[in-house]
Specification:
Chain A: It holds the Pfam family ESCRT-II. The complex is a heterodimer of chains A (about 180) and B (about 250). Chain A has two domains: about 5-100, "Winged helix" DNA-binding domain. Chain C. Domain 1 (Arc Repressor Mutant, subunit A); about 105-175, Orthogonal Bundle (Arc Repressor Mutant, subunit A). Chain A is about 40% helix and about 15% strand. Chain A is built from five helices and ten strands; from the N terminus they run E-E-H-E-E-E-H-E-E-H-E-H-H-E-E. Chain A has a three-stranded antiparallel beta sheet with strand order 3-7-6, with helices on one face. Chain A has a three-stranded antiparallel beta sheet with strand order 8-10-9. The radius of gyration of chain A is 19 Å and the shape is elongated. The N and C termini of chain B lie far apart (about 90 Å). The chains are: A alpha+beta (about 180), B mainly alpha (about 250).
């Protein structure tokens, strides 16, 4: 079995036709489904949030079988994720894609759990602490994309579970949780 | 005997005919009895044999297939009825029904990938993986027998031979001779090129493309335009399981 770092690649990654968009509808649906799962699994395991369509990305080519996805295929697979709400285009030209292997709502739930586990109710935490602090180490939150984290926090704010404080710079924004 | 005219002569002739028939019937009966007796003996011997080697039959696939062969030769089908003596003795009826269910399951799961046509070998190894917990191992012969039983359901399960390989078909696709020949050719590398098909069978390009298009539509083939020579390859998941398809093909052609 081929690996990328510590990630186990699925069998289809070694089967050349999966790198060419299939013309027959049913076959294409299956193909898109497999790629969607692979992209989400890989991004989750490697904590990757942003995929650049025109940049090198380990999943977009397989040197072992000398195949790579062309621009159209990359677009099709990512668009399929976007239409399911598991990704978002970050620009109009569809060159950068934000991968939400957890939906914003799920991230918010993780934050709540983090707050409860660490007894942070009613105390102020900096945004940076949530991303890279001691408490978050080893949890899903470690290394979370800042933009994704802010959106999850704002969702919590809307629900009245958190209050975001602006600091002097974006580095020292703080959050007070009232779970 | 000189034939005499009159009533007495006719009566004699009729009596003689009756006698002959009686004797003939007797002979036939004796023969049938003898046959019955022999068959009964044989049957009891076979039962004795089956009883003695019950465990071997259950556990050893080679032995099982030989036992089946022996039964087939004398016209006994141990699978004919689940209620019969054989099933009770050996429990093999259940064994094959169970296999049948698992085979259907595997065919359904892999259908999206291979279009409903699967290599018997691959099916068998998937079956073995699934049955890891079960003690008895399963041979290709067992798969064939189980599939044979599935035909009763009329669900279109069928085993077709393409070249040296056997493929199990779980969708009612009609494959014609052209398609079969292409599948056979594809066994070499797992894929074919249009020009390769034309050259090998001396077909017009229309005929080759037409057959390949049909195979695509049926979900049995996938196209691959990624090779550096720029030629489109038609891959057949049913002849090369994904797990065994590695990158060695880059060296060929």
């Amino acid at each position: 079995m081929q690996r990328l770092g510590d990630f186990r690649l699925p069998h289809f990654f070694n089967y050349p036709p999966y790198f060419t968009l299939q013309p027959v509808r049913e076959t294409r649906e299956k193909q898109v489904q497999l790629w969607k799962e692979l992209i989400l699994d890989y991004c989750r395991s490697q904590k990757i949030f942003i995929i650049g369509l025109e940049e090198e990305f380990p999943l977009f080519s397989n040197p072992v079988i000398e195949r790579s996805l062309n621009h159209e295929a990359r677009g099709v697979f990512l668009s399929a994720l976007v239409s399911e709400g598991r990704a978002e285009w970050m620009d109009k030209s569809h060159k950068k894609c934000l991968i939400l292997w957890l939906r914003i709502q799920d991230w918010a739930d993780h934050i709540i759990k983090f707050v409860k586990d660490n007894g942070l109710e009613d105390s102020v935490v900096t945004v940076e602490d949530i991303r890279s602090g001691f408490e978050s180490r080893g949890t899903e939150l470690a290394g979370i994309d800042r933009g994704v984290l802010m959106r999850a926090l704002r969702l919590l704010e809307q629900k009245g579970k958190a209050a975001i404080f602006k600091g002097s710079s974006s580095d020292d924004e703080g959050v007070k949780f009232s779970v | 005997m000189r034939r005499r005219p009159g009533i007495a002569g006719l009566q004699n002739a009729a009596a003689a005919r009756d006698q002959y028939r009686l004797i003939g019937e007797n002979v036939a009966k004796v023969r049938t009895d003898l046959m019955n007796q022999q068959l009964a003996t044989f049957r009891s011997q076979l039962e004795e044999f089956a009883r003695k080697h019950k465990n071997d039959i259950r556990k050893n696939p080679t032995f099982r297939s030989q036992f089946h062969e022996m039964c087939a030769k004398v016209g006994v089908d141990p699978l004919a009825s689940n209620k019969g003596f054989w099933a009770e003795l050996l429990g093999i009826g259940d064994f094959y029904y169970e296999l049948g269910v698992q085979i259907v399951d595997i065919c359904l799961v892999t259908r999206t990938h291979n279009g409903g046509l699967i290599n018997l070998q691959e099916l068998c190894s998937l079956l073995c993986q699934r049955r890891k917990t079960a003690r008895e191992s399963v041979s290709e012969d067992d798969c064939l027998r189980a599939i044979n039983k599935l035909k009763v359901l009329g669900s279109g399960f069928e085993v077709i031979s393409v070249g040296k390989k056997k493929l199990v078909r779980s969708v009612p696709t009609e494959l014609n001779k052209d398609h079969n020949e292409i599948l056979e050719l594809a066994q070499a590398h797992g894929y074919v090129l249009v020009e390769e098909v034309e050259k090998r069978f001396s077909w017009s390009s229309g005929r080759a493309i037409d057959a390949l298009e049909t195979l695509l539509e049926e979900g049995l083939a996938m196209i691959d335009d990624g090779h550096r020579d720029g030629k489109r390859r038609y891959w057949f998941p049913c002849v090369s399981s994904i797990s065994s398809a590695t990158g060695s093909e880059g060296l060929k052609i």
